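User: quick one
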Amino acid sequence: MIKVIMSNLYNASRYKNVIINLLLKNNDFVTLMNPQKPPHNQLEIQDMLLGGTWFIDRKKYEVQGQLFDHNFVDDTTDEEKTFVFVETDINMIRQNIFTDFGLYICIFTSKSLIRITDDTVPSINEVEGMGYEVGHYGNRIDILCDTVDRILKGNRKIKGIGNIEPAERGFCTLYSPNNKYYGKCLKYNVTNLNEVENSCEN
Amino acid sequence: MSLQLMKERIKHSGSTAREEMIIDGQNLLKEELEHDSSYSPTMYFWNPVLGCDDRPAKVRIYKRKYSSLNGNYQNFLTTYDNPIKIGEYLHDTKDDTYWLIYNSFNVNDVHYEGKMIQCNYLLKWQLANGEIIERYSNIVSASKYDVGETGNSTLVLSSNNYTILIGYCEEGFELEGKRVFIDMKPTKPTKVFKITRSDDVLYNSGNMGSLLSFIADKTEFNPNDDNQELRICDYNKNTTPLPPTPPEPDETTDLRCVISGNTNLKNGYKRPYIVKFTDKNKNDISWRDVDFKWNIVGDLGLVVNSYENKIDLLVDNEDLIGSSFLLQIIIIGKVLAEFEITIIE
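Assistant: Done. Structure below.
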């Protein structure tokens, strides 16, 4: 029988995975990220967002990706894109019983992609069609933050004690990795039991 | 008789010794220019606007060299009656190379000599009126020891710098701040550079001509705004002066139209609405080919400004907040499209 060891770090990693899957399944999120068309019909839009290297029909396909579970972008970026990092950290373990996780979703894009107008992809009409009030103002980062917030806030798939909630302090902070990119970082908290391995000894 | 002849001869050969020397030099060179192996019969003036060869350049070429400042260069010599200006282009038809005149000096009125540098890239950009401009350019590195990457632990971007020289032209002034492709790939170029600095004074020689110098900084490719097929960055198809001629649509049955814009009109703020026409196969039809009219149902005293295929609407009356009206497109007396707009605060 395979022993699955639950641990705090396993949970931290699992949260990242669950969040990434939730984002990928949301059409509004994918539209705003505007991934390129897959270069081969065996690749899907999700593959374009996650990135990777594939060998299909003896040809190599490399995609840098836009959505990562670490807070750096691998490889030199030579195309203007929107990026999202999903990161977790463990702020506190209280009385050895409760573990407080911080979930970070950092969203940033090239400055030239911020404004959403008639001519952008998506266009202002498509964005207003998504139904968010914030769509009127045509700021891609603000709209993405709203989209991510709606997906995550109180989402039952992120399992913990109580629901996932926006952090009390620093819920939405500014995030600019360099002088050509602008973005915001959203912080959520979720608490779980501090996983302690119980081994049965004979 | 001989005094008359002597006066004629003196008048012909110059009134001073200096003038005589100059006239002799001019005539000698004019006679002998083409009789030397350094004379190039294949060199023509290149017209950059029409993109074709003009008259023969009639130059002697010598001292061919390479420098890291200018790339390949060679010197030219030509007669006094063929002044070659800085910024002019030459095309050597024997090996299909293009040259930009970098230096030109009038040497004692006897001849012109100078230096021309080889052009290594055909730069393309679009003017504000939609016209596409092509100019041969000389491009050299402006940061030879750059490693090609710049960034931090989060994000790394590509990095490169070029100095670009083109012949003086009014269209060159619109290059400043623009993004251009500088990529040798024959199809689907991806290397985009932003023109970050323009030095127009440095190469100004007044009546002897002028060059325009730019610094181009590597920037990222935008798959939505940059047209790889036409090799133009930030391509704006709305201002192209020659739209494609679509087939004449049957106006009442085949024509479809869509009004796009915000369903809410904020009180006191002007909003644009656009109409786009397509035929039944979803091909775009230019608004210029359609005889249409905007119509607003509901006399609300809106301020209206229509132009091309757009209409700007403005309402400035708090009492109207909450009410709505219809914006319509009318063709031959029929309503082809309708758009309901609500006035909000």
